[in-house]
Amino acid sequence: MSHSHFELDENFNFVEEGEEVANEEIAAPEFDPSNIFIVPPERSPPTSQASQSGSTSSTAGPTTTSKRQRTSIVWSCFTLEKRQNKKGEMVDQAVCKYCQSALSAKSNGGTGHLRRHMETCQTKHAPQDPTQTQLSQYGSGPSGITSFRYSQQNMREGLARYIAAAEQPLTFSEDERLINFLQRYVQPQLKKVPRNTLKRDLTKIFHDMKKLLINTFINFNGVISISSDCWTGINMVGYFCVTSHSIHEINGKWRLEKKLLAFRELEYPHTGSVIYAAIMSVLREYEITDKLFSISFDNASANTAAIDMFLRNISTLMPARGSKFFHVRCVCHIINLIVQAGMTHINHYLEKIRASILYIRAPSRRQQFLETLKIFGLKRRKFNLDMKVRWNSTYLMLLSCQNYSEAISSFYNERMNDEDYHITDYDWNVAFKFMDFLKVFYDATLACSTVYEPTSCRVLMHLYNISYTFKTFRENIMFKNICDTMEEKFQKYWKDIPHLFIFAAVLDPTIKEVGAKLLVEGISENLQTGLDTNFDTIMSSMHELFNFYRNKFGSSNTYSNVQQASTSYKNPAHLLLLKGKGVASSIDTNRNELQRYCSANLEDLATPSQLQNFDILEFWMGKTSFFLILSIMA
Fold first, then answer.
1. What's the predicted TM-score (pTM) here?
2. What does the alpha-carbon distance between residue 118 and residue 38 come to, in Å, rounded to a whole number?
3. Residue 94 is inside which H or E element, if any?
4. Spatial CB neighbours of 73, under 8 Å, sequence gap ≥ 6
C-alpha cells in the first residue's frame, strides 16, 4: 500500500508532493453589503493532473504554474486592481468595495491590515436593521443621551413642527425628491405624509400647545404685557397679531419669554371698537385679563381709541397702574417717524445715490459694474435700497456704499449724458455726514427692538443720546433745518416722557433715581426747552406703586447688609451716570426698600464682574432676599 506525501505551501494549505496548482480559479463569494460576516467558500482537496486525465504517465511535458488564488475572507470586501503607486509603478492594490480606499496587496504583506479596514468599514457602511434601537443625543435627561427607535408617528409630529417653524407649504411633505432622499439615505421605513394628514397633525399640535400655554398662564403669579399690530396684506385682507411678554424662571434663571398668542384676520372697518373686541377675545381665551400690565401699540388713532375702551372696561386692572403704565407707544415706530420727518430735508441729496444703486442693481448692468469694481480693486458687494416703512433702511443703504462711492460715481456718471444727474463728491460728503447723524437712531432701534431682554430700562438713555445728537448737529448749518423738524416730532411724543420708562430706569442699578433725574434734565437741556415731565411727581407715583405692591405681596422690613464690592470698575457710561451722586450716607434700616435701594452706592449693589456683562434680570433675582418687593416690581 503506497502512502501519499503532503507538504504545506506558503499559505499553509496541504499540497501533495510534486503537485502543481491548477490554472482554474476558485470564485470568490458574491459581494453583499448587508452581510457583515462572510463565510469563505469550501476548498476542494487538490488533485493531480494525472488523475484528472485518467493517465498515470508523467511524460506529458512541463506544467505551467500560476499565482495561487487568494482565499482569505477579506477578499469578499476588496477587489484586486493594478494601480499606480507614488513611484509611478503599476502594482497590485486592494480596493475596498465600500469606501473605494486602495491598500497594499503585496503577497508578502499579509492580510491583517485589510481585515482591520474591513471590520471598521463594514460597521460604518453596512445597512443597519431599521428596527434596531440606537443612541440619540436629544434626550431630556441630565446627560442628554437616550435610546432611539424610529417611529412613523413621532416623525409626523416632528415634520409638522418643522413645517410650521420653517413656514413651508403643506405640499412640502409630498415632494417626491424629499421622500426619495429620506427613504434611500435616512430611513427606509419612512412613509409619505399626505398634506391633509399633515394639516390635521398641525392642528392637533397647535391645540395641545395652546392648552399648555393657557395652563402656564393660569398658574403664573406675575404680570403680562402684550404688544399688538394691525395691517393689510397684499391680498387686501386685514390682519392683527397679539404677542405676550412675561418673565419666568427657567433653569434657575429669570428669562423674558415671548409667545405669539394670535395671528388672525381682522374685520373691517379697523376702528377702535373692532380692535378692542378682537384683542379682548384673545385675552379671554388665554385667561390673562386679570394679569394684564400694559399694551404696546403704534400711533394709529384707532389704537388710541381702543386703549380708552380697555381702560373703561377692564375692572381687574391694578388701581395704582391706571393709564400711566397701560398704554406704551412703540419706541421704534416713533424713532422711524422722527427719521422720516428729517428725510424731507435731505432727500434731494440722496435721490442721485438712490437712483445710482437702482441703476446698478439692474441685471443687465451687474456684470458691467463688476468689471468697474475690478478696476478699482474692490470686491463684489450688494447695495441696499431704503424704504420708508423699513426702519434704518436709509442708514444701511449709505453704510453699504462706504468705500465704494468713487466706483459708483464713475460707473453711473459715465452712462448719464445729463450732468444734472451726475453724483458729485459734495453729494457723497453730505450723505455720509447724514449717515453719521443717523447712527444714534440705528443703535436705539436695535437696542429697543430686542424681544428676549428687557428694554424699557434703557429707553431713557437712548432718548438722551438722541437729544445730544440734535444738540451736536444743530450747530452745522446744513443740519439745522433737519434737527428742528426732527426735534418737533420728538417733542410731540416724548415731551412728556412715559412714567414707565423712568420707573424702569430707576430700577436699573446702573442708573437709579439720581441717574434718571440727570438724564431727564439732560434731555431738557439738549432740546433747549422744558419738558412736561415732573420728576418729583413721578417719584411720588413710584412710591405709591411700591406701597401697593407691599400691601399685596407682604412687607419686607428685614434688612441685610450687602457685601461691599471693589470700586475698581471704570466703565465710562456708568461713571457718567454716577456723576453727582456722591457717597451715600449710612443706610437707615428704618426706611423702606425703595428708599434704601435709591440711597445705596452702585458698588454696594453689584460686583465689577456683574457690571461688565450686566443682566438686570439676573441682578434682581439675586436680590430677592434684600429687596423682595422691588424684585417683584422689577
1. 0.69
2. 11
3. strand 90-96
4. 38, 39, 40, 115
